[in-house]
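Our collaborator T.R. sent over the components below with a one-line note: 'Predict the complex.' Nothing else. No constraints on interfaces, no templates requested, no preferences about which chain binds where. So this is a plain run: every listed entity goes in together, and whatever single assembly comes back becomes the starting point for the next discussion.
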Amino acid sequence: NAGVMQNPRHLVRRRGQEARLRCSPMKGHSHVYWYRQLPEEGLKFMVYLQKENIIDESGMPKERFSAEFPKEGPSILRIQQVVRGDSAAYFCASSGGVRSSYNEQFFGPGTRLTVL
Amino acid sequence: DQQVKQNSPSLSVQEGRISILNCDYTNSMFDYFLWYKKYPAEGPTFLISISSIKDKNEDGRFTVFLNKSAKHLSLHIVPSQPGDSAVYFCAAREGYDRGSTLGRLYFGRGTQLTVWP
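Returned assembly:
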């Protein structure tokens, strides 16, 4: 049973470019969460999605950031016009599978975004 | 506003001894607590969890204790092994927010555990 998949693992962008981060949840999971980790800090919640629905985006910056989880395909976190402060590790987690506990979130390996 | 706090950034323990990692929280709405272990350049790995209706949960070498009145939890690893060296994150979740049990997690900043031979 494959775990949470994220790609790319590393992404380098110049200021002003767009970054697209992809996340495929564990098989059977229908709930996806995105977190961001800045250097020397813990993970900070950004957004919680179910298929075709944003459930909670209270942790997402109001501008330049968006997320989706379409009916088919992976969840996408999109950052427009990136700035140096967006450099961080972005982690995706999933939960809610029929055969797993609904309480635990399982994390992917992360995408490390570097903005030059 | 840090609602989950891990006040010790690092802990060093000899192999075979007990490791005790501590975590405090401020939000009385938290009803579920989790510990994750993280190696460099990898995602967090779920370790053990505890519901607020319990005060202890054990899984092999790992035991989590919850003291609700003190808003404090701890993770005990006995015996500690060099492979346990990693960053340990404490996380918590609010209960039944917006009718869903699957809400966001709040994380502490982590404690770097080093187990030396």
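Summary for T.R.: Chain B has a mean pLDDT of 92.
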